[in-house]
Write a structure and sequence with these properties.
Blueprint lengths: L7 H21 L7 H14 L3 E5 L2 H11 L7 E5 L5 H8 L3 E5 L9 H7 L4 E5 L10 H10 L3 E5 L7 E2 L2 E2 L6 E5 L13 E5 L2 H11 L20 H10 L3 H19 L14 E2 L5 E4 L3 H10 L29 H7 L2 E4 L7 H12 L3
Parallel strand pairs: 2-3, 2-4, 4-5, 5-8
Antiparallel strand pairs: 1-9, 6-7, 6-10, 8-9, 11-12
Helix pairs in contact: 1-8, 2-8, 3-4, 9-12
Bound molecules: pyridoxal-5'-phosphate.
The site of pyridoxal-5'-phosphate has 15 residues, from helix 3 and helix 4.
């Protein structure tokens, strides 16, 4: 039996008529750029996340960059983000000319709020908490802290569509939240796509303007911007998929509970910890063990594909050599990078597939 890490074909099979019709509609109308499909998806996604505005952009990385730019972040500023994330969370800070400031993670693999507080200084302009693996970070506490220091918050929600904190969807704690619709994300396009969501009317308008060459009407450029669009094809596909997102999320959560239950007696394996007062949407189910590489090889020989998210904590990457950071400040992120292993999890996973993953782990000596 072969278990892929994610199975995008299985999902396509469940939705083939809707997806094919959506794509054909875009081609029939040559509605490749702009048009009502983009607005329809933006409105539907804003509703799903319980916020006023959604601005579709080209990808989740652009979403963070645009948000930072429109907050006025630039050279001389510092922006705090998590030591364990995908590099988009920090490279976008550098893209604005500001300096990324990494802060270590807590036992839930999210930003450690107490350490965020210590990292704030007069140059700090923004904080980017990442809802890593689909579990909301302490966005409420971080937003309070930020407000006290007149700092902005961007929730990097690329892995956390529909996740909730205190019953409220992620994305409504910060000034804005950014999403990725990379194909393998919980809501995935058939190419690159992303979005910024916010409740702030003026900020929404600014982000939209910047992402569209500084012009909301053709040729009326009130400023210079960039070209970062959600295209018609991706908007149509995302609109066809969005009505299923809640069911897919529930399916992910069920698979996670089965893993929790069946693996809980393995003393050598640390299961993902759930923080209180929030719902985890399990973009990834990440276990930890000191024998990670051996376990990964063992699972591979049993046909089980796994992933590592991420193999190196951001501060230790060659890309950040220039910052001369002290590894002692990122003790947990650096410890976890050699222990973490992401097990297969996708909504279409069958009980037989889950059982095969479980029995393959159980047979590891
Ligand atoms: C996927 C991801 C992004 C970037 O999204 P893209 O659409 O690939 O640009 C940003 N942050 C995190 C945490 C991600 O997982």
């Amino acid at each position: 039996m072969k278990i892929p890490f994610v199975d995008l074909k299985a999902q396509y099979k469940t939705l083939k008529p809707e997806i094919d019709a959506a794509i054909q509609g875009v081609i029939d109308q040559t509605a490749f750029i702009g048009g009502p499909r983009i607005e329809a998806f933006e409105q539907a996604f804003a509703n799903a996340q319980g916020v006023k505005h959604c601005i579709g952009v080209a990808n989740g990385t652009d979403a963070i960059f645009i948000a930072l730019k429109m907050m006025g972040v630039g050279p001389g500023d510092e922006v705090i983000t998590a030591a364990n994330s995908w590099i988009s969370s920090s490279e976008t800070i550098s893209q604005t000319g500001a300096t990324p400031v990494f802060v270590d993670i807590n036992q839930y693999s999210n930003l450690d709020t107490a350490k965020v507080e210590q990292a704030i200084n007069s140059r700090t302009k923004a904080i980017i908490p990442v809802h890593l693996y689909g579990q909301p970070s302490d966005a409420d506490l971080i937003a309070d802290l930020a407000a006290a220091h007149n700092i902005q918050v961007i929730e990097d929600s690329a892995q956390a569509h529909l996740a909730k904190l205190h019953g409220k969807p992620v994305g409504s704690y910060g000034k804005c939240a950014t999403f990725s619709f990379f194909p393998g994300k919980n809501l995935g396009a058939y190419g690159d796509a992303g979005a910024i969501v916010t409740n702030d009317d003026e900020f929404a308008m600014k982000c939209k303007l910047y992402a569209r060459h500084g012009a909301l009407k053709k040729h009326e450029h009130v400023m210079e911007g960039i070209n970062s669009r959600l295209d018609g094809m991706q908007a149509a596909i995302l609109s066809a998929k969005l009505p299923h997102l809640q069911d897919w999320t529930t399916a992910r959560q069920k698979i996670a509970s089965v893993y929790d239950d069946k693996l809980k007696n393995l003393e050598w394996l640390h299961l993902p910890k759930r923080a209180p007062n929030r719902s985890h949407v399990f973009h990834l189910y990440v276990v930890r063990t000191d024998r990670r590489d051996e376990l990964q090889a063992h699972l591979n020989t049993h046909g089980v594909s796994t992933g590592i998210h991420y193999p190196r904590a951001l501060p230790t990457l060659p890309a950040y050599d220039y910052l001369n950071l002290d590894p002692a400040n990122f003790e947990r992120a650096i410890k976890y990078q050699d222990q973490i292993l992401s097990l297969p999890i996708f909504p279409e996973m069958t009980s037989e597939q889950i059982e095969h993953v479980v029995s393959s782990i159980e047979s590891f000596e």
